[in-house]
Amino acid sequence: MNNGGSGNFLLVPIPEYPPPDAAASKTVKIAVLGASNVGKTALIVRFLTKRFIGDYEANTGALYSRKVTLDGEEVSLQIQDTPCVALQDDAEGLNCQEQINRSIYWADGYVLVFSIADQRSYRTVRPLYQHVRRIHPSGNIPVVLIGNKSDLLRARQVPADEGAHLASSLGGAYFEASARENHQSVRAAFLQLCHEVSRALGGANGEKRRGGLHLARPKSPNMQELKRRFRQVLSSKVKSAGAL
Ligand code: GTP
Ligand code: MG
């Protein structure tokens, strides 16, 4: 999809929303990692907008920034989409672009994604986690594992219990999700990670209060870009429907 020629966003400094002097006391930084075509971008878009576009520019590295309320505490949530990683031919290591390393270094928590219909993408997860560990050698690494495309039941190559087993061996929770069909499990996975990262960061607000994560408005610059792309897609769909 044409994104107006903006190319790869990853290395472009994104203005913080809200500005640093505003009320948010904490920044929760999450990177979404996984093999090619597993639905990383679709999951982020689903989480932030509750929608599924269906066609995403491959390998973009956009950073999305939202102000959120988490357990009653206002935090700034930043989600980094990343280009795909690939297993090397000998399957012993990863081909990881430098910008992925920067994202891993930058983030405090990780959404690891594979497709339940793609065994190779599943096999990428453990080396990817080990790579994260090498970059953050000490301490707890908050992760959640998403087996995406759960709507493709007949194409399943990875049983649910294998996903759950892998997640527990990495110390994270497992979610089967379909960015295409369902918002709930996508939301649950991101929320779980947000909570874990937020707790790991500690907080200005010592006392925990009840409440979910509420996505706040107005939007960051990247959300404006996302809205523009929605309008583009919708208008092209209307046009093609009209042409029938
Ligand atoms: P790269 O950026 O190229 O690494 O891909 P990605 O991991 O960001 O995947 P992306 O979100 O671009 O989705 C890849 C393809 O899978 C697109 O055609 C999506 O429409 C499709 N897709 C994403 N999520 C789902 C899903 O839950 N179910 C199904 N059936 N298709 C999905
Ligand atoms: Mg993508």
Set out the fold topology.
Layout (H helix, E strand, L loop, with lengths): L26 E8 L5 H10 L13 E8 L2 E9 L4 E2 L6 E2 L2 H9 L2 E7 L3 H5 L1 H11 L7 E6 L11 H11 L2 E4 L7 H18 L12 E2 L5 H23 L1
Parallel strand pairs: 1-3, 1-6, 6-7, 7-8
Antiparallel strand pairs: 2-3, 2-9, 4-5
The chain binds guanosine-5'-triphosphate (GTP) and magnesium ion.
Structure characterization notes:
Mean pLDDT is 79; it is low at 1-16 and 205-221. A seven-stranded mixed sheet has the order 8-7-6-1-3-2-9, sandwiched between helices. Strands 4-5 form a two-stranded antiparallel sheet. The chain has seven helices and nine strands. The protein has helices at residues 40-49, 98-106, 119-123, 125-135, 160-170, 184-201, 221-243, and strands spanning 27-34, 63-70, 73-81, 86-87, 94-95, 109-115, 143-148, 173-176, 214-215. The chain has one domain: Rossmann fold (3-Layer(aba) Sandwich). The longest helix has 23 residues, at 221-243. It has 244 residues and is an alpha/beta fold. Strand 7, helix 5 (160-170) and strand 8 (173-176) form a beta-alpha-beta unit. Magnesium ion (MG) binds next to helix 1.
Share of helix, binned: 25-40%
User: What's the level 1 CATH class?
Assistant: Alpha Beta
User: What's the gyration radius in Å?
Assistant: 18 Å
Largest sheet at a glance? 7 strands, mixed
* Overall number of strands: 9
The total of helices stands at 7
Strand order in the largest sheet: 8-7-6-1-3-2-9
**Domain module tally:** 1
Morphology call: globular
